[in-house]
């Protein structure tokens, strides 16, 4: 054992000093503190008391290995990183027996099971003599406290007793530190749980307030747009109502927590997933914006979707989950509002269509009852002076009529179907501008090319105006026009075709230009009219006309010669405009409908 630093040689005096030091050390170790701080303190005090070259403490880890956790006087960094199985080495004997053990020369000792990796570390540290005492907590050996010298020596009973007594106090301090850590961890977890409860209660209160606000909107007769804006104010970010095709109908933005407007592509995939699954889906785009899309359904009918966009990430957690449920509940309310609006619109369209039909089939003018019904809809019959007919190659007349109803409501007019055609009667101060504006709005709503032809009604003769507009619309299609808005005046050149009052003028003009060809074709079953028409359609090019009619050139020339003989004209004269006009009017008369 090391010599007495104070020069004291009397055993009793030395013993008194050791006990006093042990008491003071044990008292300091019982104070609560961090586990690692307690371990370092244990080793430092043990090193001071026992007086060996170095001291270290090892604990049994969750993996069942004994690892050094603190040391005093060591010189090798790898020593603290070493670990051995808890059943080998001197530590294994100490743990198994729960009693002190020592060796004079660790490397040469045959009474212990050696670990090759630890033996290499022992060599680097210069460890020779080693004393170990157990750290026992409530009957369990949780580790060992070691005192080591770098020379061969024996350990005396007093040293063993002193280190053992210190280890007992150290075990108490270690247990206290563990309990302290466990208590502090439990307290921290309790605080976290309490904060989560507070957050959850706040979110629940917020969700309840949102639900009450949404219910209030419905009870007060609010619109889907009101619901969308309320959601944006409550949830933050941006809320968008999408129709059945995924097109944005209305959008609301939060003033306090705005979000950039979502692009169509950002919502397209989420919209399709929500439509397919019927559940709310959430995705995050490349810009870090989260989009939650919930489908709006009524039974098996898909009415559209509700999209909520906001910045992704952060600490939203429970709030986000609850807000998504608020979004889903809002879809039920919107479904009811949409169905209500649809029912009101359908009823309005039905009444509008019925009144329109009565005005169209009756004599010119409106009865007192019809005027009263019109006034109830804020419509002045005396100002309904423009009849419009809409047509499309891709949309049915029913679909077009539905869009025309929306326009008619805004313009104090009537819309519906008449004789299979989509039509509308409107007040108009400038017919050309009115037709163009209706065409532009109808095309945008329909999402496809449409034609709109207008005719002014004279003396409230809406039926005649409808007939002219319908026949002109057929002529427009025959001329190859598929996307325009115009009045019949733009096609005055062809008025004889669609104006029923000029049928005799048309007959005289056609008979005077191509009458002999028509008679000849009727008697002989030929088609000289069609041949000559094709010739002018191909810009008087014989070869092109022959290819178009699948005829040999000689056959075509014979037909053209016969036509020239019958008409008394030279078909080789390309500028025969009167003949060409007669052929075109005859062709257009075939496609224009008869008098309505």
UniProtKB/TrEMBL annotation:
Pfam families (alphabetical): GAF, HTH_30
Alphabetical list of InterPro entries matching this protein: CdaR-like_regulators, GAF, GAF-like_dom_sf, PucR_C-HTH_dom, PucR_C-HTH_sf
Record-linked SUPFAM superfamilies: GAF domain-like
Domain spans labelled GAF: 34-184
PANTHER family, per the entry: CARBOHYDRATE DIACID REGULATOR, DNA-BINDING TRANSCRIPTIONAL ACTIVATOR ADER
Protein name per Swiss-Prot or TrEMBL: GAF domain-containing protein
């Amino acid at each position: 054992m090391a010599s007495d630093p104070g020069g004291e040689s009397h055993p009793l005096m030395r013993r008194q000093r050791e006990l006093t030091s042990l008491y003071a050390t044990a008292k300091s170790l019982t104070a609560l503190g961090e586990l690692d701080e307690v371990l370092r303190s244990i080793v430092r005090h043990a090193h001071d008391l026992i007086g060996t070259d170095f001291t270290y403490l090892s604990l049994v880890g969750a993996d069942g290995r004994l690892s050094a956790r603190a040391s005093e006087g060591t010189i090798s960094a790898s020593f603290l990183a070493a670990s051995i199985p808890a059943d080998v080495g001197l530590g294994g004997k100490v743990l198994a027996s729960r009693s002190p053990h020592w060796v004079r020369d660790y490397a040469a000792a045959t009474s212990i099971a050696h670990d090759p990796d630890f033996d290499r570390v022992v060599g680097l540290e210069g460890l020779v003599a080693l004393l170990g005492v157990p750290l026992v907590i409530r009957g369990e050996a949780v580790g060992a406290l070691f005192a080591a010298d770098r020379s061969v020596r024996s350990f005396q009973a007093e040293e063993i007793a002193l280190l053992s007594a210190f280890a007992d106090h150290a075990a108490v301090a270690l247990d206290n530190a563990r309990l302290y850590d466990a208590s502090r961890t439990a307290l921290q977890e309790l605080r976290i749980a309490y904060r989560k409860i507070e957050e959850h209660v706040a979110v629940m209160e917020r969700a309840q307030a949102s639900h009450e606000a949404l219910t209030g909107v419905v009870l007060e007769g609010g619109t889907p747009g009101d619901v969308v804006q309320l959601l944006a104010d409550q949830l933050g970010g941006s809320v968008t109502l999408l129709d059945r095709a995924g097109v944005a109908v209305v959008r609301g933005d939060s003033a306090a927590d705005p979000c950039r407007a979502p692009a169509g592509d950002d919502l397209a995939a989420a919209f399709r997933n929500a439509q397919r699954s019927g559940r709310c889906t959430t995705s995050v785009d490349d810009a870090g914006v989260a989009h939650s899309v919930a489908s709006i359904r009524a039974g098996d009918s898909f009415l559209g979707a509700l999209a909520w966009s906001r910045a992704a990430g952060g600490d939203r957690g429970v709030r986000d989950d609850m807000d998504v449920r608020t979004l889903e509940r809002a879809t039920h309310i919107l479904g009811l509002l949409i169905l209500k609006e649809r029912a009101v619109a359908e009823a309005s369209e039905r009444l509008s269509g019925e009144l329109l039909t009565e005005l169209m089939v009756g004599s010119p003018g409106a009865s007192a009852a019809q005027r009263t019904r019109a006034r109830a809809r804020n419509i002045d019959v005396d100002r309904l002076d423009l009849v419009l007919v809409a047509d499309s190659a891709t949309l049915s007349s029913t679909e077009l009529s539905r869009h025309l109803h929306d326009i008619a409501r805004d313009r104090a007019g009537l819309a519906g179907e008449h004789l299979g055609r989509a039509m509308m009667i409107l007040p108009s101060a400038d017919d050309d501008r009115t037709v163009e504006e209706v065409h532009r709005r109808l095309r945008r709503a329909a999402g496809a090319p449409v034609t709109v032809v207008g005719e002014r009604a004279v003396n409230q003769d809406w039926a005649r105006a409808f007939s002219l507009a319908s026949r002109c619309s057929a002529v427009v299609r025959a001329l190859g026009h598929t996307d325009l808005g115009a009045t019949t005046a733009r096609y005055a050149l062809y008025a004889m075709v669609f104006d029923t009052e000029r049928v005799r003028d048309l007959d005289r003009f056609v008979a005077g230009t191509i009458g002999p060809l028509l008679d000849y074709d009727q008697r002989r079953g030929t088609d000289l009219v069609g041949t000559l028409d094709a010739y002018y359609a191909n810009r008087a090019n014989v070869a092109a006309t022959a290819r178009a009619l699948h005829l040999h050139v000689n056959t075509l020339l014979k037909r053209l010669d016969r036509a020239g003989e019958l008409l008394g004209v030279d078909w080789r004269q390309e500028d025969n405009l009167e003949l060409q006009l007669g052929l075109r009017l005859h062709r257009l008369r075939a496609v224009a409908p008869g008098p309505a």
